[in-house]
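Technical annex B. To support the medicinal chemistry partners, we prepared a structural model of the target in complex with fe (ii) ion, based solely on the information shown next.
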Amino acid sequence: MAKKGLILMNLGSPASTKVSDVRKYLREFLMDEKVLDLPYLGRFMLVNCIIAPFRAPKSAEAYRSIWTKDGSPLITLTKDLKAALDGMVPESIEIVMRYGHPSPEEAYNNLLKNNPDLEEVTLFPLYPHYAMSSYETAVDYMVKKYKEGNYPFKLKNIPAYFDNEFYINALANTIKPYLNQDYDKILFSYHGVPERHIHKGHAEFNPELPANTICSGECPLTFKCYRAQVRKTTKLVVEKLGIPEGKWEQTFQSRLGRDPWLQPYTAERLETLPKEGVKKLLVVSPAFVSDCLETLEEIGIQGRESFMHAGGESFEAIPCLNVSPDWIQAMVQIKETAESI
Ligand SMILES: C=CC1=C(C)c2cc3[nH]c(cc4nc(cc5[nH]c(cc1n2)c(C)c5CCC(=O)O)C(CCC(=O)O)=C4C)c(C)c3C=C
Ligand SMILES: [Fe+2]
Ligand SMILES: [Fe+2]
C-alpha cells in the first residue's frame, strides 16, 4: 500500500449526451464564479434563463459527434492517463473532475480506502497554464474539499508547467512528424478567456500594474498571467522545432458571449487564412492535455469545415498529448515540482 497519492485533475464532461445532462453540466460549470465572474443574481439569471436552456441542445449535438462507446473522450483519456502512469510512479493514483464525477470527496476517499496509511497527496492539474477559470478553480475546489473533510494526509500541488522542459519536449515531439509534410502554417490555438480575467490577475498579483494594462504577453507576472504563459509555451516550441517566422501563428478559441476575449480568435482566422494564401494548415491546441470537445469538435470538425469552406486545401488537427510516452515521462518529472499547500 502506498503512503503517497497522486490525483490527476481535469475539467469534466456531461454524464451523457442527453440535453438534460448537458444542461446540468453547463449549469454547474457556468455557475462557477471563477468562470462567469458576475454577481450571484446576474450569473444565476444569465445561466439559468439564457445560456443553459439555449446552449444545451447545441452542445449536446456537438458532444454526440465525438462521444465514444466508453463515454466522453476527455474522461476516457484521463482514465487512460491514469492507467499509463500506474506502476511508473510509486504513488497510488486517482482522477478527479472539477465538474461532475469523480468528485474531490470520491477521489480522496478512494485513495484513503485503498491506502489507510496515506501521508501525502499531490494534485496534478491537467492544465499546463494558469487561468482563473481552469487551473485556479480546480485547485481551489480541491483545497476547499480537503479542508472540509479534515483528511489526515498532507496536500501538495504542482505549479503551472507551461515552460517545463519536459512538457515542451513532449509537445514538440507530438508536433514534429506533422512538420515533415507540406504545410503553409501551423496555428497554436489556445482556449480563450475574457480579457477581463487577465486584468483581474494583473490587479490581484501585482497591484502596482494599472488594472487595465494590456500586457503584450511578455508580462512580468508570467507565474500567474495566462496570456504570458501561453505566449511562452508557443515561443519555446517554435524555437525548439525551428519553425520559421511566418509559418506559425497563435490564436484563441471557444469564446462564449459578447465580451472581448483574448485575440486573435481562432474561428475568425480559420476563415481569413485561405484568403491570405494559407491553404495547407496544421492546428495544435497546447492548453489541452487530453483531447476533448474543444479539440475534436470545435477544431477537428467545425474548424476544418470553415477553413475548407473558405478555400483551404488541407487541414490537420494535431492530437493532444493524451497518453504519448513522452508525456508520461514528462509527468513523472513534473510531479517532482510539487509544492506544499
Ligand atoms: C484550458 C483550459 C480551459 C479554460 C481556460 C477554459 C475557460 C472557459 N471555458 C468556458 C466555457 C466552456 N468551456 C467548455 C468546454 C471545455 N473547456 C475546457 C477547458 C478550459 N476552459 C475543456 C477541456 C472543455 C471540454 C470539456 C469536454 O467535456 O470535453 C464548455 C462546454 C461545452 C460548450 O458548450 O461549449 C463551456 C460552456 C468559459 C466561459 C471559460 C472562461 C471564462
Ligand atoms: Fe472552456
Ligand atoms: Fe500579463
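Notes passed to the chemistry partners:
The first strand starts at residue 4 and ends at 10.
Residues 40-64 form the longest helix (25 residues).
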